[in-house]
Amino acid sequence: MAYAYDDQNIFAKILRGEIPNNTVLETEHALAFRDLYPQAPTHVLVIPKGPYVSYDHFAVEASDAEIVDYTRAIAQVCKMEGVSLDAGEGFRMISNAGDHGVQEVPHLHVHILGGRRMGRMVQPQS
Ligand code: AMP
């Protein structure tokens, strides 16, 4: 079964400029912006500009240039936000995928969370 991408998702609309966002960083292949409902003092979402639904989709189908640019954008955001290990106290990076991953927005995004200790990685099922 092929990966299916729905271009009506909210991050696709952000990329098309149809709805606003609070941009932290924009590169050739990536956009980073603040989460609308932050769960930590730092809560930034980093998305590729290409139509990828999840990290595995991106890793399989994106070009080398997209993968390098996106990966470096994540590192740059961590540094800019003062949470990278050469600039701060660390962070948690999460990328939810699909139903079992409880992904709400079906466009690849990593959450960069920092500025406080994060607690247990996986909460009891709810
Ligand atoms: P996930 O459950 O991993 O798909 O997370 C989706 C995230 O997108 C949530 O943390 C939401 O708070 C965030 N979100 C939804 N809409 C927006 C928006 N328009 N701008 C910024 N963040 C958003």
Walk me through the topology.
Layout lengths: L9 H6 L7 E4 L3 E5 L7 E7 L6 H7 L2 H17 L10 E4 L15 E5 L12
Antiparallel strand pairs: 1-2, 2-3, 3-5, 4-5
Verbal overview:
The chain has 126 residues and is an alpha+beta fold. The chain has one domain: HIT-like (HIT family, subunit A, 2-Layer Sandwich). It contains three helices and five strands; from the N terminus they run αβββααββ. A five-stranded antiparallel beta sheet has the order 1-2-3-5-4, covered by helices on one side. The termini are far apart. The mean pLDDT is 96. It binds adenosine monophosphate. Residues 10, 21, 33, 35-37, 45, 96, 102-105 line the site of adenosine monophosphate.
Bound molecules: adenosine monophosphate
What's the architecture in CATH terms?
2-Layer Sandwich
- Multimeric state: single chain
Please provide the count of β strands: 5
Fraction of residues in H or I helices: 10-25%
- Please give the CATH class: Alpha Beta
What spatial order of strands do you see in the largest sheet? 1-2-3-5-4
Q: What's the CATH superfamily, by name?
A: HIT-like
Low-confidence stretches: none
Biggest β-sheet: count, sense, barrel? Answer: 5 strands, antiparallel
Could you say what the CATH topology is called?
HIT family, subunit A
Question: What is the global morphology?
Answer: globular
Helix-strand category = alpha+beta
Number of self-contained structural domains: 1
